[in-house]
């Protein structure tokens, strides 16, 4: 029964939101698994053009995150979430017509922009629709179901890659387009929630950049999200170039991560719905991530079964960091912003993640793999520093929030 409680969300809005995320995961998993092949075979790009285009699109999303997310404060979370998903669905339907670098850049940049709007709308909707404890558990269920959908989508993509024809590759993007449009209909039927009394007022966008305590929390959380770069990019390269583990062991590591993210995400959110609980969860994330780094380093000196076992152990530690960091970040993003600027603050929080995605891959790969291994200690130091800083940063941001509001932050409707 306990396992069921951690896998199946309660009926009502939590289950509807998890179902919506499952649909999204199927489409996203289908496209992203086969996207590299689609871009090279259909759009006609060379590998370096794909990298340049993705980096430019990420940079555009980074600098526009706050003004675009602030549209949620002006026009409402439900409307912007629905509109953002509709726009994504229509843009994915345009992929079969893209040819060459410039059309690729246009579509991928537009997708980043509307995804920013849609994601801000979704986050603010959850903040306004659910109380803190229910919200964190609902986010956890949604993330678990997203992983299930992602796995299903990856299987569909594998089938298209096995068929290896242009129509099969068109299916990758058109299926995602159809699922996004179905998702938009699904989202449109979710219940409306009351907005803040100050919502919709015209105001100068950018006040979040003067809120240094909140930006400090955002920066520390961005460092903690480096677990993602370690799991997805650094560890695979380390296995291939610095260990004697077989290549297929990467699949075992991926399955380990996916199973843990699916079955444990809800359980580790207990107590993370308060600022103090979120700080404690984030601290644990930094500590276990720091512990995982020297375990990766050890695999460069071991051989055979020991190497394979240690790689799985490191994956378990970094996956626990992923689960705890996610739980903490959801609460920080919900409880620290002013009620009438939630979209703007969500956009600033997103900027931290975007910056990490731009800077961390090359930096951490150079530290760990190119250095020969000593850089794992530097990466561990980053995680340890973030673990030590997140508590004081969160307490300072909470005090600042209360001082600005004059009273403690209101409980969401």
UniProtKB/TrEMBL annotation:
Record GO terms (molecular function): transmembrane transporter activity
GO cellular component entries: plasma membrane
Broad class of where this protein is predominantly found: membrane
Keyword set, alphabetical order: Cell membrane, Membrane, Transmembrane, Transmembrane helix, Transport
Membrane-crossing segments per the record: 21-44, 50-68, 145-163, 169-188, 209-230, 250-269, 281-299, 305-324, 345-368, 374-394
Protein location: Cell membrane
Topology relative to the membrane: Multi-pass membrane protein
Pfam families: MFS_1
Record-linked PANTHER family: MULTIDRUG RESISTANCE PROTEIN MDTH, RESISTANCE PROTEIN MDTM, PUTATIVE-RELATED-RELATED
Protein name stated in the entry: MFS transporter
């Amino acid at each position: 029964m306990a396992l069921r409680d951690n896998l199946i969300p309660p009926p009502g809005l939590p289950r509807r939101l998890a179902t919506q995320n499952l649909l999204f995961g199927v489409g996203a998993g289908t496209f992203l698994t086969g996207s590299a092949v689609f871009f090279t075979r259909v759009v006609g790009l060379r590998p370096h053009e794909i990298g340049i285009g993705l980096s430019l699109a990420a940079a555009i999303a980074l600098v526009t995150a706050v003004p675009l997310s602030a549209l949620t404060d002006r026009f409402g979370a439900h409307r912007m979430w629905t509109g953002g998903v509709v726009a994504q669905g229509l843009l994915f339907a345009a992929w079969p017509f893209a040819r060459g670098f410039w059309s690729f850049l246009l579509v991928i940049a537009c997708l980043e922009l509307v995804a920013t709007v849609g994601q801000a709308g979704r986050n603010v909707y959850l903040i306004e629709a659910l109380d803190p404890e229910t919200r964190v558990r609902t986010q956890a269920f949604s993330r678990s179901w997203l992983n299930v959908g992602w796995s299903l989508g990856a299987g569909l993509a594998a089938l298209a890659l096995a068929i290896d024809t242009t129509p099969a590759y068109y299916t990758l993007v058109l299926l995602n387009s159809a699922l996004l449009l179905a998702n938009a209909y699904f989202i449109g039927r979710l219940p409306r929630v009351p907005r803040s009394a100050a919502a919709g007022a015209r105001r100068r966008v950018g006040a979040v950049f003067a809120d240094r305590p909140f930006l400090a929390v955002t920066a520390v959380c961005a460092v903690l999200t480096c677990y993602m770069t370690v799991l997805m990019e650094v560890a695979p390269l380390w296995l291939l170039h610095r260990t004697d583990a077989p290549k297929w062991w990467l699949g075992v590591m991926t399955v380990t991560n996916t199973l843990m993210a699916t079955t444990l995400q809800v359980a580790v959110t207990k107590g993370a719905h308060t600022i103090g609980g979120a700080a404690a969860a984030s601290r644990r994330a930094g500590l276990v991530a720091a512990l995982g780094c020297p375990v990766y380093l050890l695999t460069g000196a071991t051989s055979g079964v020991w190497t394979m076992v240690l790689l799985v152990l490191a994956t378990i530690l970094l996956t626990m960091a992923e689960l705890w960091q996610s739980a903490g970040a959801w609460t920080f993003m919900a409880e620290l912003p002013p009620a009438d600027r939630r979209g703007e603050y969500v956009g600033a929080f997103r900027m931290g993640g975007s910056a990490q995605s731009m800077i961390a891959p090359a930096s951490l790969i150079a530290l760990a793999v190119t250095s020969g291994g000593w850089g794992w200690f530097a990466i561990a130091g980053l995680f340890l520093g973030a673990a030590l800083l997140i508590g004081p940063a969160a307490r300072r941001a909470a005090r600042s929030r209360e001082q600005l509001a004059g009273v403690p932050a209101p409980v969401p409707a």
